[in-house]
Amino acid sequence: MERAWIDGKRGKAIITFDDDEMAETIFQKVKSGTLKGVSVRYSVDSWEEVMAGKVSADGFVGPCDIARKWTPLEISVVSVPADATVGVGRSQSDPQQRPQRLRAFEAQVQTNKNYFEMEDNI
Length: 122
What we know:
Blueprint: E1 3-7, E2 10-14, H1 21-32, E3 37-50, E4 64-78, H2 98-121
């Protein structure tokens, strides 16, 4: 990684690939768009605990823990990222990707809400 920075609420980086055969294969897949997932390993330096029924400053409803300060440790190009909203060339203004990503997250939020409501009724 040559450089990393925050642009708005998005993390961005400039990376350099090795010049061996394997790196060249991966680089060509990134260039063609067939490999675009990114995985970032990080350590959390500061957590905010949001108690049940409380709301964080940015609108998350507890119970939850929010990483407020974190340090990136490593970035990798991967075929299946842990978070599908990140990756090579991704943009918040990309109208073709945004609705699908939101539907997936909304479904997960609804699943979590249903689970907690079910727990409350047991």
